[in-house]
Specification:
single chain; alpha+beta; two-stranded antiparallel ribbon; globular
Length: about 160
């Protein structure tokens, strides 16, 4: 997974360290394409974490709101196709989906096959988690740190 492990790493890290209210779901959905639709259509707020291609330096953290999502580079053919943008557009057509949306993207160093995330991207994870917690807090969601927590179980990693 190399840098593509960003999303699963963030989700597992959040689950390991924090308690979330019942109305918050943390989901690692892999590369679902249009299979993403049922998840997107049923939520009021959506925060997505993924690596995002950009001309900026690897490890750069960027955020996009729903009205900005069309500016995310999408000239690719990958397992992520159709894109998140396509899924959101489809929800618009049916009147479903979140009114409140944020994409947290990190510029990857490499998405080649492998089990280890590049350090430059791994170092961005605390900032990504802080952005997610801040965004949830801005909506009134109370997230509590667990009294005792273990490190995230990154089952695919050699370290």
């Amino acid at each position: 997974m190399s840098d593509d492990a960003l999303g699963p790493t963030v989700i597992l890290s959040l689950e390991a360290k924090y308690n979330f209210p019942e109305n918050v779901e943390l989901l690692e959905l892999g590369t679902p394409g249009f299979d993403l639709l049922p998840f997107v259509a049923e939520c009021d707020k959506l925060v997505v974490v993924d690596t995002v291609r950009s001309d900026e330096a690897p490890g750069t953290v960027k955020t996009w709101a729903r009205d900005e999502i069309s500016t995310v580079p999408k000239d690719r053919v990958s397992p992520h196709e159709p894109t998140l943008f396509d899924a959101l557009r489809r929800c618009d057509l049916t009147g479903d989906g979140p009114d409140d949306f944020m994409l947290v993207g990190v510029v990857p160093d490499s998405c080649a096959s492998g089990t280890e995330m590049n350090q430059i991207v791994a170092k961005s994870i605390p900032a990504v988690i802080d952005l997610i917690l801040e965004e949830l807090g801005n909506t009134g969601c109370v997230v509590e740190e667990k009294e005792k927590h273990q490190p995230a179980n990154l089952w695919w990693s050699d370290s």
